[in-house]
Design a protein that fits this description.
There is one protein chain. It is globular, with a radius of gyration of 13 Å. The longest helix has 15 residues, at 18-32. It contains 1 helix and 6 strands; from the N terminus they run βαβββββ. 19% of the residues lie in helices and 31% in strands. It has one helix at 18-32, and strands at residues 8-13, 36-41, 46-51, 58-59, 62-63, 68-69. By secondary structure, it is of the alpha+beta class.
């Protein structure tokens, strides 16, 4: 049986924790060989995406890997 690592991950955080979480995401992306990592600031309602070939985060909820917009998965009024 083959064990495959995940290709993408999502983490949710408070706005005050955003900088610290971005550092955690960079380390996890490298450690687990992820293609994409999404970070959602639930207080500001903003998605951040970091891909393995990117040097910095971008405000983006669209996954090219999964071909979905993560905003479509959220059931948050407002």
């Amino acid at each position: 049986m083959l064990h495959e690592l995940p290709l993408a991950a999502i983490e949710f955080c408070r706005h005050d924790d955003l900088t610290e979480m971005k550092l955690t995401v960079v380390a996890a992306l490298q450690q687990y060989g992820l293609a994409e990592f999404f970070l959602y600031d639930y207080e500001q309602k903003v998605w951040y995406r970091l891909s393995k070939n990117q040097a910095s985060f971008e405000e983006n909820s669209r996954s090219g890997l999964l071909n979905i917009d993560l905003n479509g998965l959220m059931n948050i009024p407002g």
